Amino acid sequence: MDLLPELKELSKKTPSKILLVVLDGVGGLPKELGGPTELAAAKTPNLDRLAERSALGLFTPVAPGIAPGSGPGHLSIFGYDPLKYQVGRGVLSALGLGIPLGPGDVAVRGNFATLNPDGTIKDRRAGRPPTEENRRVIEKLKAKIQEIDGVRVELYTESEHRFVLVLRSEGLGARVTDTDPQTTGVPPRPAEPEDPDDAKSAKTARILNRFVELAREALKDEPVINGVLLRGVSQKPDFPKLPEVAKVRAAAIASYPMYRGVAELVGMEALGLREDEEDPDRPRAKVEALKAAWGDYDFFYLHFKKTDSKGEDGDFEGKVERIELFDALLPELLALKPDVLLITGDHSTPAVYKAHSWHPVPVLLHASYLRNDAARRFTEDEAAKGSLGALVGPVLLPLMLAHAGKLQKFGA
Ligand code: ZN
Questions:
Q1: How far does residue 304's CA lie from ligand 1's centre (Å)?
Q2: 114 CA to middle of ligand 1, Å?
Q3: What is the percent of the chain where pLDDT is above 70?
């Protein structure tokens, strides 16, 4: 459901302030059935006290049963139907590496592969090489390939066998098929325009095919990494922008490039804050950045990543610790007196599941004009008793705007 056109009609500028906190992958599961989830196991006196005075519910970012990536999960929270507003995989990878993309640039996700002497694929991931090995091969390719037919070619290491290819030029399209056949024993496919009459995409396909040839030539003496597979050919999408839709000045406080990138796609300003080797999440730095910017914006997106990372690692206790760390910061967020405070996750990442899952995520809404509800803690069990009920799809943005007094009534 795309509510953005309606919201643009209904929204009005007000001085009220909205603070949206995303605890990445915060939803969890018990270690064994009947036990506590990560949120229930965490000691969270501040969140508990807040939950008693808030409305809670369970949020499903895309649809029941769908485990969202962080991109679609965040777009849903920001009010964008992730089934309609899709970001290509190449662009998501580029955003993840903090590579700036212009409107016409094309981003592609690449795999290093091992090819047999007859040109068929032996290993689609070239034995998952160490990232250092990836860097060495990228340097080798960069020395030989900088431009094809006047199109600038840029190469970036992602990790292991994965790299990102960016084409910078005018007149390129991105409706191009993958060269990766997703199987072994067959040769890579040629890149082709999805529509043969689409001259821009045909040009991109031609450049990509030439790149594949040049890369094979450059890597012909390599014992393992001797081929490339390309997929997710995409361009930066032109989404409606939150400042116009909701009439807010929106700021993103996130350290990882992908989240900054997705926030910028919807028109937020990503505030100066970079990854830190010691603790890339740096909760303290984020709270300071929030305080410093409080007077300059009226919509703040504050992102914490490590709840998800610990879940992916299968580290139940580590995830509990990151939840407790957030709880300790909460009084400082409340001291800013946001008119609306919404806390949720972009998906669940249960430590026992070690991956993103489809389980609904707790959501907590703190504002004036709330109904009483029975939820006493920010946990999955308690949120199920909350007055917000089961929320599916991009409905949190209208809820935040309404509670901030930023929406006029619909119809007479
Ligand atoms: Zn996530």
A1: 9
A2: 31
A3: 98
**CA 68 to ligand 1 centroid distance, Å:** 8
- Three-state DSSP state, 296: coil
Given the candidates 2.60.120.10, 3.40.50.10540, 2.40.30.10, 3.40.720.10, the CATH classification of the domain at 4-86+239-403 is: 3.40.720.10
Write the burial class of residue 277 (CB in 10 Å: 0-12 exposed, 13-18 middle, 19+ buried).
Answer: exposed
Q: How far is the CA of 305 from the centre of ligand 1 (A)?
A: 7
pLDDT tens string 377-388: 999 999 999 999
Query: Which strand (E) or helix (H) includes residue 50?
Result: helix 45-52
**CATH topology assigned to domain 93-234:** Alpha-Beta Plaits (3.30.70)
CA of 394 to the centre of ligand 1 (A): 16
Q: How far is the CA of 194 from the centre of ligand 1 (A)?
A: 31
Q: Residues 68-87: pLDDT tens digits?
A: 999 999 999 999 999 999 99
Q: Are strands 299-304 and 250-253 parallel, antiparallel or unpaired?
A: parallel
pLDDT at residue number 277: 53
Within 10 angstroms of residue 342's Cβ, the number of other Cβ atoms is 24
In angstroms, rounded to a whole number, what is the distance separating the alpha carbons of residues 406 and 156?
42
- Global confidence as pTM: 0.89
Query: What spacing in Å lies between the alpha carbon of 293 and ligand 1's midpoint?
Result: 24
Q: Find the Cα–Cα–Cα–Cα dihedral 11, 12, 18, 21, rounded to 10°.
A: 20
Both structure tokens of 262: 């997705």
Tally DSSP H helices, then E strands, for the chain.
14, 14
Residues 333-362 have pLDDT tens digits of: 999 999 999 999 999 999 999 999 999 999
Strand 18-23 with 299-304, pairing: parallel
